[in-house]
Specification:
4 helices; 69% helix
Length: 127
């Protein structure tokens, strides 16, 4: 995926995240004991972190970089915290530290997965 397409995808997914977390009075979905809300947060933030890792150029380290992972996860943690605070103002929504934890873990997994893919691309022999 080219940087331009990755940036568009990350921006669109970020907009989708904002819209979905701004939805007042979301329906309750029975999950049979599965914390569906936390799984959803995990997946949404994992995808965003993955897309952002692919979208952001990192001078000197185009592939795998621990510094990029740490900065990205920290940024996504801040985004998650701001999103949880934002939800406090939405009817039928509330702040939840469990959601924030799922956001951060999802962001870490998404960034690590993107970094692993970048590492694999780095190690590929050129044809």
């Amino acid at each position: 995926m080219g940087k331009r397409r990755a940036r568009i995808a990350a921006a669109l997914w970020g907009g989708f995240l904002f819209l979905i977390t701004s939805w007042p009075n979301p329906p309750s979905v029975p999950a049979g004991g599965l914390p569906l809300d936390k799984v959803t947060h995990f997946l949404l933030y994992a995808v965003e972190a993955f897309l952002l890792y692919r979208a952001i150029a990192w001078k000197g380290r185009p592939g795998f970089a621990w510094s990029r992972i740490l900065i990205l996860v920290g940024t996504m943690a801040l985004w998650g915290a701001l999103d949880e605070a934002h939800q406090e103002w939405i009817p039928g929504r509330m702040m939840d530290s469990g959601d924030l934890a799922a956001d951060v873990v999802g962001a870490a997994v998404g960034a690590l997965f993107a970094a692993a893919m970048a590492r694999k691309d780095e190690l590929k022999p050129e044809a």
